[in-house]
Amino acid sequence: MRILQVGPIPPEVGGQTGGGVATHLWSLAVHLKKQGHTVAILSDNYYSEALSPESREGIHIFGLRGLLRSAWTAYIFCPSFWIKGIRTKLHFGTLMTWKGVLAGLLNYRRVIKAFQPDLIHIHHLEFRFPFVTYLVGDRIPILTTVHSTSFLEFSPSSAVEKRKEFIRRNLDLSQNLIFVSQFLENRFEILFPGVLKGKNTTIIHNPVNGSIYYSLSTTEAREKLGIESAGPVLLFVGNLIPQKRLELLIEAAKLISDRGLDFQVRVVGSGPEQAELERLVQKYQLSEKVVFEGQISQEELFLYYNAADLLVSPSPMESFGLVFVEAMLCGCPVLGRPGVLQEILPSERCGVYLPSSNPEVWAEGILEALDRSWSRGEISELARVYTWDAIQNQFEGLYRQLTS
Fold first, then answer.
1. From start to end of 302-350, where are the E strands?
2. Average pLDDT estimate for 138-165
3. C-beta of residue 245 within 8 angstroms of C-beta of residue 314
4. What pTM was estimated for this model as a whole?
5. What sign has the CA pseudo-torsion 239, 244, 246, 252?
6. Whole-number Å distance between alpha carbons of 331 and 382
7. Is the dihedral of CA 394, 352, 248, 213 positive or negative?
8. pLDDT one-digit tens code per residue, 78-101
9. What is the sign, positive or negative, of the torsion defined by CA atoms of 250, 252, 253, 257?
10. Share of the chain above pLDDT 90, in %
11. What b/e readout covers 15-46, taking b as 16+ CB neighbours within 10 angstroms?
12. What percent of the chain has pLDDT over 70?
């Protein structure tokens, strides 16, 4: 089967940005390739002046740079292209300029024509979806994975209604949808009552590569990372953005520090909130306890999960929570908010969740979690229900259903 994935790729294969969706998409592409499928990725965070695709691990990667200049003359006198352009621009409204719409259509049209997919799998029900839909219509099956509601629920208040109507228009045109958690599908039902009725929806949790994340000696992991700590190590992994609520962990760390306890907080990730968070750390005089590690490789992240005594994620809303699964596969217990963590926690023996945004409650919750006796081997084994070996066939089964 010829499968075109549409979405971001991780930095280690050329992507300009990272994140859970990029990691998931690349892992999916690699596993599909191993199963004998021909796989291409149309990536909007990969830039290359080459018009033909790059090849990484046998996967074709198409970038978007420079295509408008080279393809413009080929379609400027094509009436069907302009009809699609007008429809697409009307669909986007003021969310995208004419230049952006035409550039997108030219890029997507060229890739689809060059690769000739049997199925197109789009990641995120936002800006990528209209381009594919208006170009291919019902000629090629389209599958869309809905990864989050961040586009709506963490947008400026002035933009919420406009964005909501845009997503509603996308939902009206969509037919085949994957939600990465039941929590996320329920959230869409609340935001768009009745819109999912009659659509082909399914829940597939994002799988994790069990050969990359597994349990290792905590002592060995700390030695390799150069972590010298007699006390426990708390770990945060994620983008440093407001919705992750990292300040809640820092405030809880201040309360724990006031009790005279020895500990470290390792923050893995980067983002626009880093400077403000670093100022908060300095204000609380926690510079020796809270360390910002920045962006790291997948191999280093594996070591951090194994070096940590507890993964802490204060984010009030995660559509799936990939870092929870990665940490558990390494035997690290997890602490987070309710919602999706309640759904994906394979056992209470793997972690706990706190239905609170009070720093004092989080400080107590962290201390109680650190005081518990956890079996890292058991946590790792229980979390294997989220590996590719356990979940991969769900994607292939859905692909066969849509192309049959």
1. 310-313, 334-336
2. 90
3. yes
4. 0.85
5. negative
6. 9
7. negative
8. 788 889 999 999 999 999 999 899
9. positive
10. 74
11. beebbbbbbbbbbbbbbbeeeebbbbbbbbbb
12. 96
Q: Tell me how far CA of residue 141 lies from CA of 2, 112, 122, 253, 402, in angstroms.
A: 12, 12, 11, 50, 6
Q: Which has the minimum average pLDDT: 191-200, 226-235, 329-338?
A: 226-235
In this structure, which long-range contacts are made by residues 201-205, counting pairs with CB atoms below 8 Å and at least 24 apart in sequence? 201/177, 202/177, 202/178, 202/394, 202/398, 203/178, 203/179, 204/145, 204/178, 204/179, 204/180, 204/391, 204/394, 204/395, 204/398, 205/180, 205/181, 205/320, 205/344, 205/386, 205/391
Q: Convert the pLDDT of each residue in 198-213 to its tens digit.
A: 999 999 999 988 889 9
Given a cut of 70, is residue 66 above it in pLDDT? Answer: no
| Sign, Cα dihedral of 19, 333, 247, 264 | negative
Contact 266, 235 (CB under 8 A): yes
Query: What are the distances in angstroms from CA 86 to CA 81, 99, 160, 308, 314?
Result: 9, 12, 24, 53, 44
Residue 286, phi then psi, degrees to nearest 5? -115, 15
Tokens in use for 363?
């400080």
The mean pLDDT of 179-197, rounded to a whole number, is 94
**DSSP-assigned letter for residue 290:** E
Could you give the C-alpha distances from 158 to 119, 125, 164, 273, in angstroms and in order? 36, 21, 11, 21
Backbone phi, then psi, for 135, in 5-degree steps?
-80, -40
- Segment (H or E) for 274: helix 274-283
DSSP 178-204: EES-HHHHHHHHHHSTTTTTTSEEEE-
